[in-house]
Amino acid sequence: MATLLSTKILAENQKQLILNSGIGLVEYDAINIGFDNSSLDAPIPRNLIFTSQNGVKGFFTQYPEFQTRELNIYCVGDKTKLEIEKNGYSVVASANSAEELAHMIVNEFNEKQFLYLCGSKRREELPDLLKKQNISIQELEVYTTTLNPKKFNRNFEGILFFSPSGVQSYCKKNDLNLSVAFCIGPTTAAEAKKHTQNIIIANKPSIENVIVQAVKKYKK
Fold first, then answer.
1. According to the model, what pLDDT value does residue 92 have?
2. Deepest of 97, 112, 130, 186, by most Cβ within 10 A of its Cβ?
3. CA-to-CA distance for 182 and 15, rounded, in angstroms?
4. The predicted structure's pLDDT at residue 171
5. Which residues contact 197 (CB under 8 A, 6 or more apart)?
6. Predicted local confidence at residue 35, as pLDDT
7. Which pTM was predicted?
8. How far apart are CA 106 and CA 83, in angstroms?
């Protein structure tokens, strides 16, 4: 029986997608997320960019007063979009990756000032692409990501990765060896490629789709 390692504790329905397919599962949280108080000296612009659910949670937890303001929100991923909608906002545009969203903003929207709500380990692609097009982008760190490395004295047929930080955390104490790295998106896959070429990327950036790719490969 194939066994998967999830680098994130899964919801019960997500676990059942794996277990009901006759595949074994081990899970742990490869990273820890913390919501710390943040501050921004300048006024917050009305155009906001979120690339994760954690960014949405961190921002609206720390700045509840903005739930009464008119905001234009741009985001990455369906789950991020759902989290934004839970807070009473619609999304102007969403994409499957930060790079794709940056190109969309440059090509399709005229706004020239944005605030990027990010974590402590955010990547450079999105702000760099916007700055190159003379679009002003401020950054506000609304959550912290810390690695939670753990040694496993066994091999897994497949490992489910949901962020570049998850890859970094796992590979601090383990080798990917012959495991297949199932990655939620291209930025996570780029990190995994530092350790293996045996990679499968989800069709959509969702936990469920990462699971679907693994089940498709190992289902009995």
1. 95
2. 130
3. 15
4. 97
5. none
6. 86
7. 0.84
8. 24
